[in-house]
Amino acid sequence: MRCLSCPLAALAAALAALAVPGCRAEPGPPTLTWYVNPDNGGQARLAARCEAEAGGRYRLRVEELPRDASQQREQLVRRLAARDASIDLMSLDLPFVPELAAAGFLRPFTPEEAAPLAEGTLEAPLASARWQGRLHAAPFTANAQLLWYRRSVAARAGIDPEAGPLTWDALVEAAERTGTTVQVQARRYEGYMVWISALVASGGGTVLEEAGAGRGARPAIDSPAGREAARIIRRLAGSPAADPALSTSDEESARAGFMGPRGGFMVNWSYVHGAALEAVAAGTLDPARLADVGWARYPRAAPGLPSRPPLGGIHLAIGAFGRHPALAVEAVRCLTSARSQAAYMIDARNPAARDAVYDDPAVRRAFPMADLVRESIREAAPRPLTPYYPDVSAAVVRSFHPPAEVEPERTPAAADRLVADVLQDRVLL
Predict the structure, then answer these.
(1) pLDDT above 70 covers what percent of the chain?
(2) Which CATH superfamily groups domain 3-143+312-378?
(3) Of 247, 274, 265, whose CA–CA distance to 373 is shortest?
(4) How do residues 375-404 score in pLDDT, each as one tens digit?
(5) What's the DSSP call for residue 319?
(6) Under CATH, to which class is 146-308+388-423 assigned?
């Protein structure tokens, strides 16, 4: 049975009978449960602070979801389809908001509730939190990938990444000249979709046209931008600048390769800087190696076009079946305030969604690349905002994997056909 790929509204109807009747009221203030993605404990510490500031109006309990984003979605979908009232708040990866909102699993914010949540929030993450004109989630963190490079390697290659975005071709050539690698994420998983989508967007294209139309969306990778994206992937995959384990690479393996003896360049999220600081503090990374790390804007797909870094982050949403929606809104306001986002950015090294946070002196000390991160988020490209995102992502990744077999004249067209077949239920993934 293909439960996780069928329309969620139908799944909800199928599982609603399994819902557990409401339990007896507990003594004391209501307890709100917040399902979070794993981090360093920062969300739990933030929850404790907001609970204390609530003055006894609610308790806020944190429950951790699986580490893998797809498994997080799977657990939430199954429970929300069964109308689980214990899900008061949830941390959601950006691409999953349209799917859960279209299925009626998220409680949208009223215009009055939405106004303070949107005020001062960067537009790219804010746009990804809306569905059908309504705010269904509150941006909590935002992110965009950067180009990370070893300063010594860039000097040997005769390039200055900070002088302006490099093209992917220039990046690969620099790594080839210096005998180093360009680390990316290309395992058959969501991180590879992040790279493919960013390459297409950086070429001026899109994965889906009219993504919000659901099954009526039109696959659009078979375009000049999509074929250029495929060429770049094949170019790196066939180069000595590729990691030998390219087809199984993810964020952590890319970070390890970048910090290793052949490390030269990498695209990755900003958490890698905090991870390097922790490794230095633990004595597992030479401080000189960290000092050699620089950062710059995400690479261009073509010389005449601006790069479109991939957009990431976490939104906070309220479950549609929770027993205390008003208190949940209050908790979301506290958790996503500028003060909370600044504290979390320093604590967990996850960039904020609110613009003003990047001007906080404490944030700027913790994030020396704060201005670049904010600029990159402002100009980032989201993955397709469609209720059928998991199917679309799986179809694209399957078509483009393994990277060494990608063919510019064949792969984008094959991806479009598979996406169309999946959207029309002609193919089951």
Answers:
(1) 94
(2) Periplasmic binding protein-like II (3.40.190.10)
(3) 274
(4) 999 999 999 999 999 999 999 999 999 999
(5) B
(6) alpha beta
